[in-house]
Design a protein that fits this description.
By secondary structure, the protein is of the alpha/beta class. It folds into 2 domains: 161 residues, Rossmann fold, CATH 3.40.50; 165 residues, 2-Layer Sandwich (Dihydrodipicolinate Reductase, domain 2), CATH 3.30.360. It contains 10 helices and 14 strands. The strands form 2 sheets. Strands 3-2-1-4-5-7-6 form a 7-stranded parallel beta sheet. Strands 9-10-8-11-14-13-12 form a 7-stranded mixed beta sheet. Helix 1 links the parallel strand 1 and strand 2. Helix 5 runs parallel beside helix 10.
Length: 345
């Protein structure tokens, strides 16, 4: 059994991670940290984990992770970069949930996250953790930068179409809706029930910090700079992201050629499901799972592709992707702990 440590285990992504690890079968949880709940059993914080995982939460210091084969760092942006270097220096392999090592240019990070990056020299060693695109790089990585939830759906849908020359890079519009859990487990007025229930709003218009992450990876896919219009929305549901993406067809592209381009890339991918013609994803189909569902059509009237993706923001958009990356790092079957009966919530 491989030994796992989770730093910052009491957020929503921490709970999802522990839920997946508990039924994994190839790993055991050896250490959990929390600054807020230090000294308490994890079952006292998340009663659903009582008699599932028995581990007392401790304050973080690198020694807490001693003996771990993988350390998951579930700390917030701006905080993770203060702790990850110590873990790497002690020889731990780290899967980091924050954005602190996702962006390859620390200047871009500082512009969008409004803070100085304290260890930009560590960024080149980080592998961007979308396995479907970077599986071979993940295998030998010491630091995996787990991708953001909004970028996951957008990047995986668009990268094959850009590579195939089927869409105009300058025409991409991403309209995404997320459940409230995407904002994290924190007490903020905008996230209270009465502020969210029966309401539906856009936010971060033109300024959302996942924008450069999407643009970075799409630019890599195309081989030249890509800029997108990305607008996220908050909807009154707990989990899930539905993204509706628009892009102009080019080069004689058809709905069939676009579907073939996706099929050629993803036909052997366990967690990518392409919807049949005329069908489109629903977040209820992916809730609790590590699947990404993609539907696509060409609007003949406008010559524009409409692509719809659905993921669970806490699983494929965070903790499920992290377990998928862990499986690759440890040389395990990539689907272990992620596909089994009774998995979905």
């Amino acid at each position: 059994m491989y030994r796992i440590a989770v730093v910052g285990a009491t957020g929503y992504t921490g709970f999802e991670l522990l839920r997946l690890l508990a039924s994994h079968g190839g790993v055991e949880v050896g250490a959990l940290t929390s600054e807020t709940y230090s000294g308490q059993e994890i079952g006292a914080v998340f009663p659903a984990l009582t008699k599932v995982i028995s581990c007392r939460l401790r304050k973080f210091e690198p020694d807490v992770c001693e003996g771990a084969d993988i350390v998951f760092c579930c700390l917030p942006h701006r905080t993770a970069m203060n702790n990850v270097p110590d873990l790497l220096d002690r020889g731990f392999r780290v899967v980091d949930f924050s954005a602190d090592f996702r962006l390859r240019d620390h200047v871009v990070y500082e512009q969008w996250y409004k803070t100085e990056h304290v260890c930009p020299e560590r960024i080149p060693a980080a592998v961007y953790g979308i396995p479907e695109l970077y599986r071979d790089d993940v295998r030998g990585a010491k630091l995996v930068a787990n991708p953001g939830c909004y970028p996951t759906g957008a990047i995986l849908a668009l990268a094959p179409l850009l590579r195939a020359g089927l869409i105009a890079p300058s025409s991409i519009v991403i309209d995404a809706k997320s459940g409230v859990s995407g904002a994290g487990r924190k007490a903020e007025l905008d996230l209270q029930f009465s502020e969210v229930n029966e309401r539906f709003k856009a936010y971060g218009i033109g300024t959302h910090r996942h924008t450069p992450e999407i643009e970075q990876e799409l630019s890599v896919a195309l081989g030249s700079e890509v800029r997108v219009s990305f607008t996220p929305h908050l909807v009154p549901m707990t989990r899930g992201i539905l993204s509706t993406i628009y892009a102009d067809a080019v080069g004689g592209a058809t709905g069939e050629s676009a579907w073939v381009a996706l099929q050629e890339v993803y036909e052997n991918e366990a967690f990518i499901r392409l919807m049949p013609e005329g069908a489109f994803p629903n977040v209820s189909q992916v809730a609790g799972s590590n699947f990404l569902d993609i539907g696509l059509t060409l609007d003949e009237r406008t010559g524009r592709f409409v692509i719809v993706t659905a993921i669970d923001n806490l699983v494929k958009g965070a903790s499920g992707a992290a377990v998928q990356n862990m499986n690759i790092l440890l040389g395990l079957t990539e689907t272990q702990g992620l596909i089994h009966p009774g998995f979905w919530v």
